[in-house]
Amino acid sequence: MRIILCGFGVVGQSLVKLFDSRSEDLYAKYGLKPRIVGVFDSKGSAVDSSGLDLEKLVETKKKHGSVRNYSNSKNKMSGIDMIKNLEADVLIETTASNYKDAEPGMTHITMAMKKGMHVISVNKGPLALAFPSLLELATYNQVLLKFSGTVGGGTPILDYAKDSLRGERITSFAGILNGTTNYILTNMANGLTFESALKDAKDKGYVEADEALDLDGLDAAAKLVILANWIMGMKVTMPDIKCTGIRKVTTEDIKKAAKKKCAIKLIASCNKELEVGPKEVSIDDPLCVNGTLNAIAFTSEHSGTQTIIGKGAGGMETASSILRDLLDIRQETAKN
Ligand code: HSE
User: What is the model's pTM?
Assistant: First the structure.
């Protein structure tokens, strides 16, 4: 399987390490031979249509801060030229999410699909702003668009609701979909101020480069959009979400909730409305997880409420979701 990798940050590098360490078993168990033929980051690119050396890619990035120095060739392709001109089967989009115009991910994804490539996106921006039209574009071009890592990272939340609950009618769901704000609220409940909890989260590398995406609820809202479209069949985008972040949550609010055996959590919910906002949750509710954990409770017509809990972020965790999507693409295309 020939792959173009867009973006070479934590997730991209983790994916390459995962492929490198699992190459024998991926082939033996699943017949999967991922061959990365092109990678680009914000500073440059590396190309080899017979497959890039994975160890060398990671070393080059570590040493030079970009894959640009992978080879001495002066003819460096831009990311756009790579998608236009390099033959590949799958494009993996890992550049940073933005909820203004979803670029550059939107261009990468649409160009690749128009060229007949299957796409795996862990970038939430394009899906949050244009989910219905991206799915239409995939159908029109007869390619697969996979995005299992956009919600829950390595925890297969989308697959659980779509596949494990097949035949069921999910009537509502609610969850903690942002690890950073959960970490901050957990630490505030343990006595830290908002400012010091935020600083601690930043020091640990949890907070997005643009902290507003976490703190103002945009990251959770993007995940809610993806869930609502994929699980509930709605056709919604970011402006359809009523969204409040955690900046106004005070230590007093948290103490008051604790007296009622509750904790304040940033909850994304789909009931009558699509909403993200701080809510009191009973500490006995399985949804009430702490630290950077994510949790989501699906309520269905016949099988009641089930809660799934797991890590919602992290390089290797998200890389494992990309592997899941690749295996699905392999299986679904083998049928044709
Ligand atoms: N900033 C996100 C979070 C990363 O904290 O959950 C994963 O989408």
Answer: 0.95
Of 38, 96, 92, the closest CA to residue 68 belongs to: 38
Query: Is residue 223 annotated as a catalytic residue, yes or no?
Result: yes
For residue 208, pLDDT beyond 90 = no
178 close to ligand 1 (CB < 6 Angstrom): yes
Strand order in the sheet with 44-47: 44-47, 35-41, 2-6, 90-93, 118-121, 145-146
**Cα dist. 88→39, 82, 118, 122 in Å?**
12, 10, 9, 18
Q: Is 193 helix (H, G, I), strand (E, B) or coil?
A: coil
Per-residue pLDDT band at 336 (split at 50, 70, 90): low
- Residues 168 and 302: beta-carbon distance below 8 Å: yes
User: Which amino acid, one-letter code, is at 324?
Assistant: R
Pocket test for ligand 1, best of 127, 183, 206, 223 (most atoms within 8 A of CB): 206
Ligand 1 pocket member 313 (CB < 6 A):
yes
pLDDT tops 90 at residue 49 = yes
Which pLDDT band holds residue 250 (cuts at 50, 70, 90)? very high
**pLDDT digit string, tens, across residues 293-323:** 999 999 999 999 999 999 998 899 999 999 9
Pick from 276, 264, 165: nearest CA to 222: 276
Task: Report in angstroms the alpha-carbon separations of 188 from 35, 47, 144, 196, 335.
Answer: 45, 47, 42, 9, 51
Domains of the chain: 2-154+315-335 (3.40.50.720), 157-311 (3.30.360.10)
